[in-house]
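Help wanted!
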Amino acid sequence: MSNIAVRDVVRVVVGEIAPEELPLVDGLAQFGDATAVRRLSRQGGRREPLGFGFDEATALVTPVVWLAVDQAARRLGGAAADGAVTGAKSVLGRIRGRTTPVVVPALSSDQLAVVHREILRVAADRGLGEKRALMIADAVVARLTLGANDPAGPADGVPPART
Amino acid sequence: MTTVSPPRRQVDERAVGPGTTVRFALLVVLLLISSATMMLDVVVGFSGANDGDGNGCLLAAGADPFHDNDVVTFTHAVAQINAMDTCITRYEAPPPWWLTVAWPVLVLVLAGVLFRGLPAWKARRRRVVPLWTTDHDGEIQRTVNGAAAKIGLARTPRVVVDRAEMSASAVVFGRNRRPTVCLHGGLLARHRTDPGHFEAVLLHELAHIRNGDVTITYITVAVWRTFIASILLPYLAWNITEIVTGHRLVDWPIQAPGVVRNFVCTVFLVALIHLARADVLRSREIYADRTAVGSGADPHGWAVANLRPAGGPLRRASGSFVGLWHLHPSWDLRRKSLTDPAVLFGVPMLPMFLVGAAATLISSQSWAGLSQYRLDGQWVAEAVALATAALVTAVVGVTLWRAVMHAMVATRPVRSGALAGLWLGAGMAAAELLTSEVATHQWLPGRPELLLLPVLAGAMLTWWTTACAHLWPPHGRDERSARSCC
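Answered by r_m:
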């Protein structure tokens, strides 16, 4: 098992469980991980004239997967070494409008269990049902277990994301 | 045995013009006149004319505005009016007239540019994509075409997608003749799972186009943003700099009322414009909701959980206050309005207060600007007052006439309108306190009881207008249209 980008995990899992959300994933993929996570974490949408005014995000799979996996990648330490760009490189990336995607390192069984629990928690916070949450958590763990070896989503050679 | 009460008759809200265009016009006029007078203040300060504060000739005339009350100062000035005029002409000449007129013109030109550029800027900022790039089987486009036909649009507007926006919502921007509907990524995700909600949102946005809301809304947005950037911020920066450096201050305790009043008046102007704009937009949302449901939208599309936390009276009051600043009505009100348009025919008090305040600000600022150029003769004064009165009467008159028509058709008692007028007058009186018209170098006017006059005048105006509307009910096509929903 090798590293895999968070956005690749999201795309594969959403494609399996909620394919109708793939345009949303593609839209977020235009941005860097930090921007995508900030948008996904936002509780209310824009309040703007002549909008419908329904600012709350509905119970979607995409934010659950992206937020939980991103948090796991950062918390479990691999992100800093493999994916998170720091210092001058980060500044340069921002100036050029590109950053390196956050990557999930190879995880142990215990760490995968942590990710599983994290997904169930985020899913509950976001109003998803228990059954659907379990389905998402299982799919994510399966994807992380397969990692980049699976032909569906290698992390190596992932193109830089737009910020 | 139970008795069934007869269904209450309802009024078709489209039977009478909503009057929102003239309310938007009032705000734009206020912004343009404020642009001229605020920047006149800055230009005079920069040029050094008026000694920066306009008190030099008063002192020369024997008045002491820093120690005498306003009445004594005014008496001295009137007693020496010829000498005052000569002094002002020689030492306190205002900048060329075109320099004052240039600012509102600049605001209009920049707002025009912003209005034309807003659609492209919004599309670029959101990184929107055409609908066909995500709608591979054309199903959503067919839904849009069907919705446009249902709502009665001659042609389907351009549709784009903001894929990264998670809310199950949409927005329309551009202008009436060339609108763009932007669907959010969260809404697209619900196209198949919740088609009722999808169509409700779509019809709501198309209703804004059909109701002609797009151009007027974005003109107001453009003028407001231009005003903030080109007038308000420079004005505040200049005033704060002058205060911090002490350039214009001779004696703070004496000048404090004028300086504080000036600052509070600016904050009041900003709050007034935001609140009035939000109020008009909220009513446009209810019109759009009703148009959408009237065209076949599923009312369950408005079945949104009430997110406002329950609480005591204080919490509810604070929630209501916060709601005044929102561009959308509460979901409870929107759902209720789907079946009963009564809210569109009400005479709410806050808008009345704001209209009254706007009237005084327009009138007093026009007067202040014109008097700098010695154009404050009787005819000019009356022309300014009449023009302001015409705007206010149009706004208030439409509101009251609609309320009377609704009450008569719905067989409800017609209210006198006097209470609304008291709020209108209260707005005028509150603005008087902030404009240095009735108190210049003092915190309060010498005879504050005179502020009751505009309050009573407001009540008289609305009482009389309501009585006329009652005696002159809708007739002909309007009446049939008004009762068509009964």
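OP: Thanks! One thing I noticed: The longest strand of chain A covers residues 4-5.
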